[in-house]
Amino acid sequence: MKLLNTIILTYTILLILSTPNFLSLKAQENGTGTATMPVQSSEGGFCKSMVETNGYECEDHNVTTKDGYILNVVRIPMGGCRDCRTRGNKSPVLLQHGVFVDGRSWLLLPPKQSLAFNLADNGYDVWLVNSRGTEYSEGHTSLKFDDPAYWNWSLDELVAYDLPATFQYVYDQTGQKLHFVGHSLGTLMVMAAMSRDQLVNMLESVALLSPVAYMGHTTSLLSRVIADNFIAETLDSLGFYKFDMRNVIIIEILKVICRIPSVDCTTLLFTPFTGQNCCMKPSIMDIFLDHEPQPAAMKIVIHMCQLIRGGNTTMFDYNDSGTNLKHYGQPTPPAYNMIGIPKDLPIFLSHGGADALSDVDDVKLLLDSLQGHDPDKIVVQFIERFAHADYVMSGNAKEHVYDPFIAFLSRLH
């Protein structure tokens, strides 16, 4: 109980000091611009700091969405490792991160344990997306980063604009269909798109790690507190348009706390949100805090809260029939129907028994909707000890998830 209270207190302090971006809002009211001190980007950018330093070739690409957001997409070319086993000629693989992180989340582990680098070592053409609003994708053709209009987006815009833009760009660059790997929100993005018959013509296969299709059964303590108490909606009504947990002072304090031998920061920082991850080494916390968490629009947090409270997966609900009618042509938001996922598309799905965000009962609902899927085209993996963050930060994710996934890909060629 004492540990639980400490965790709740820690997150409460973080949310009060950082999430609403209070200083930023007040500075704009005074006409002085943003007053929060941003965490500085790693010198030389994504490629220099995270990829080339590990001996891999790297390319930075910019992709502009139809609604004007400029997304950074990082490419580790086919067989991008200078000393790797195979100079590749295999298909492109697009990796889409979840909420509150960016493309660097696939590179937090050492190269021999990282999914992105392992795919490159096996000859795949690897592409890492940085979603709108994250550190390397702050640009827009007309809006400024601290403009509230910049943050007026939810899951629906990621599905309608970000995914199609990145898919089309990679498809045009490579001339090949894509293998897609999503974690957490990344899985919901692609499933929502497929449910509306989007992107399917450019897809070779899909990997769903910690799939989030339904959220009604989530046991995530922090998610439940925010959703059940309408915290995001309250902050939005007060004019807080961005959910930002990254603050220089707080990050440095957390780094000091995490270096105390008696403190398990993997439990302190992740368990209330993701469930009890089994296999993350404490040493990864310094790397994580160097790069993550990343901001997201308050609107997408509200959207996720709606899915938690409602249990169904729908487009954003404006909680006003007239406004919904204006946006959707009907008084309630349309559903993303997972039954619409193509039944002959190769799918690799892996979920964990300790995952509080991708709860076992919610995954069961997804699997029920996939019952008519071609049995030769779907692999379902259950790892009892894994929780949500284990899929991108666990030292044994390669053994339990990445190697079986790469074997799954090899059977498709």
TrEMBL record:
Keywords: Hydrolase, Lipid degradation, Lipid metabolism, Signal. The gene is LOC107956452. PANTHER family: LYSOSOMAL ACID LIPASE-RELATED (PTHR11005). Residues 1-18 form the signal peptide. InterPro entries: AB_hydrolase_fold, AB_hydrolase_lipase, Lipase_euk. The keyword Transcription regulation does not apply. Pfam families: Abhydro_lipase. Residues 49-108 form the Partial AB-hydrolase lipase domain. The keyword Signal applies. Belongs to the AB hydrolase superfamily. Lipase family. This is Lipase. Transmembrane segments: none annotated.
